[in-house]
TrEMBL record:
It comes from the Bacteria. This is T3SS negative regulator,GrlR. Gene3D superfamilies: T3SS negative regulator GrlR. InterPro entries: GrlR_sf. It comes from Bradyrhizobium yuanmingense.
């Protein structure tokens, strides 16, 4: 393998499943694209943009901005889904097909800690 190829997370489209931690209740899921240091994704109400860097051969850190694209209906309550954008710091580990991620979202004046699992759906060049 050429030098430097192991220093990047495998580009791809992943499903993301988020669970709030620290005694809070909440779940969410969507899709997220990791490509050459950029993060893009979304779900039914929110979209995510950001960037990441690889810290070693199987871990990464990054920043994501979550913004609402559609107002929730009925009792729907999307995670981090207020009308104001939410900044999130994340760290995680990855293999060729899966990842684990934790992060802290600053929602208003409250911090929300979460965990997420990533499952690779498709390769992206």
């Amino acid at each position: 393998m050429a030098a430097g190829l192991r220093d990047v997370m495998k580009n791809g489209l992943y499903s993301i499943h988020v669970t709030l931690l620290d005694g809070r209740v909440g779940k969410g899921s969507g899709v997220i694209l990791f490509r050459d240091g950029k993060i893009l994704g979304g779900d039914a109400y929110l979209y995510y943009t950001g960037s990441y860097t690889v810290k070693d051969n199987n871990s990464f850190k990054g920043e994501v901005l979550v913004q609402r694209h559609t107002s929730p209906r009925g009792d729907d309550n999307p995670l981090f889904g207020g009308p104001a954008p939410v900044g999130i710091g994340v760290t995680g580990t990855f293999t060729d097909t899966r990842g684990q991620m934790t992060g802290t979202a600053l929602v208003g004046k409250a911090s929300q800690i979460f965990g997420a699992t990533l499952h690779k759906l498709a390769d992206v060049d």
